[in-house]
Design a protein that fits this description.
about 110 residues, mainly alpha, Four Helix Bundle (Hemerythrin (Met), subunit A), about 90% helix
Length: about 110
């Protein structure tokens, strides 16, 4: 009976980790898309705000992600950091391109 209880507890923990990653991934995608929109509007400060929010969620999702999705989430995090760095020096076009790359990776991680 104890073995079944431990098995069920482990299964529930595993499922909750996947939900945790999916919630953060969805938020990362939302903010990365907003960063792209702000970049197309020419607003480096607003792009940076959304890129920072997106990277926070992508890093949280990366903690529990596995295999290929984790690789995409990590690549998205790098692109988001590039977008933050580029927007901090008002390079809106390159920051927007980096944010677009992040969106591609985040969508691939779904």
């Amino acid at each position: 009976m104890k073995k079944i209880s431990y098995l069920l507890a482990g299964l529930l923990l595993s499922l909750s980790n996947n939900v945790f990653a999916e919630d953060h991934l969805a938020e990362a995608i939302k903010h990365a898309n907003a960063a792209v929109t702000e970049g197309h509007a020419g607003s480096a400060p607003k792009l940076m705000i959304h890129a920072k929010a997106a990277i926070d969620h992508s890093l949280a999702a990366s903690i529990v992600a596995k295999s290929i999705p984790k690789n995409h989430i990590n690549a998205a995090s790098k692109s988001l950091q590039d977008a933050i760095d580029q927007s901090s020096i008002n390079q809106v076009q390159s920051a927007t391109k980096s944010a677009e790359t992040a969106v591609i990776h985040l969508n691939a991680a779904k």
